[in-house]
Amino acid sequence: QVQLVESGGGLVESGGSLRLSCSASGGIFSFYAMAWYRQAPGKQRELVARINSGGYTEYADSVKGRFTISSEFAKNTVYLQMSSLIPEDTAVYYCFSDMSLVVGGQASGARNYWGKGIQVSVSS
Hints:
This protein is mostly beta strands. Helix content is about 0%, strand content about 60%. The protein has no helices and 12 strands. The protein has strands at about 5, 10-15, 20-25, 30-40, 45-50, 55-60, 65-70, 75-80, 90-105, 105, 110-115, 120-124. A hairpin with a 6-residue loop joins strand 4 and strand 5 (about 45-50). The protein is elongated, with a radius of gyration of 15 Å.
């Protein structure tokens, strides 16, 4: 069973830092991109940061300069280093992957996978 598992969330004070990790398991994968989304209470889910297989990154304006996304695709893992956290960052953070499952040496068509989400809470 393919799954994405997030870790590293929790409660932190304003100005603090957290590092989220997400690892894909359940198969051999060929990655196109991985990303982090978040959803705050009463808000729509939004893209926070994305990294593609070539290392190109993009960020939401609200987190530029504070968050850094990185990946170790060979280890099926993506990270989100969050610094200078503010209460507005409080949300459930979801790992996302656009990837192909490799079976018998053949890659299937790319599809999207989602983690179940992990809570990040920033106190003022």
